[in-house]
Amino acid sequence: MATDVTQELAAFLRSRRERLDPRDLGLPPRRQRRTPGLRREEVAELAGVSVDYVVRLEQARGLRPSADVVEALAGALRLSGDERAYLFGLARQRPRGEDEAATEADPSLAGLVADLAPRPAMVMNHRFDLLAWNSEMARVLVDFDTLPPSRRNAIWLCLLHPEIRERYVDRDRTVRDGVAHLRAAWAAHPEDQVLAGLIAECVTGDEEFARLWAEGDVRLNGRGDKVMRHPLAGRIALRFETLTSLQDPGQLLVIFRAADDASQEAMDGLRQSLT
């Protein structure tokens, strides 16, 4: 049965208000409390909104609270991280700071990348900065440790790195897919100034990118294939899969595998030649 979002928002706010113990929030005890938990007046005071506003929200009277109000209510009601995200979803709002990109891979994901060897794997944030990788991934692309941190970015490597950009056999499709994927990321994180700077650099640094960006294609490429001309291993056909961590949705795990037997032999030879 379909659930009315406004009604669910109202019920959720009531349930979380009623479960709180006023003493845990440092509120003075009152002798007569006909209902459990906090009173609406107390929630309103803690959240910095009017009592009438809280009443109207709990009565599902068509209000759509702003992101700031949702954040204030989440704090007043002492919501957990998951509950806070649920409240933002019900209110159809985005949390402040959501555009902040992770700068380090979660230790569990970094460990998983190492465990996935000999399959090339890496972890990226939403702007495609590389946060963790295994040695197999470095052998396929480049020794990332030799690059400045600002250049450890999958989109920049694919589009602007003077050597890697020429390795893709079907470069036109690769660039088009990369631009469409980058536009989707930009739309999802419009306040990310670092991401906006990367896009501006690509627009000014590559005529092909600028032309494709102007076309406005949007597409998420969570899986697919790439064919590369590796300077040591020769032709390698790779399939990739991009997975999102439920615990850290801003971190993407990308796994490559050989698309055919010849490519697997090339990958094996590459690994053995560099051990």
From TrEMBL:
<dbReference type="InterPro" id="IPR001387">
    <property type="entry name" value="Cro/C1-type_HTH"/>
</dbReference>
<dbReference type="Pfam" id="PF13560">
    <property type="entry name" value="HTH_31"/>
</dbReference>
<dbReference type="InterPro" id="IPR010982">
    <property type="entry name" value="Lambda_DNA-bd_dom_sf"/>
</dbReference>
<dbReference type="InterPro" id="IPR041413">
    <property type="entry name" value="MLTR_LBD"/>
</dbReference>
<protein>
    <submittedName>
        <fullName>Helix-turn-helix transcriptional regulator</fullName>
    </submittedName>
</protein>
<feature type="domain" description="HTH cro/C1-type">
    <location>
        <begin position="31"/>
        <end position="84"/>
    </location>
</feature>
<dbReference type="Pfam" id="PF17765">
    <property type="entry name" value="MLTR_LBD"/>
</dbReference>
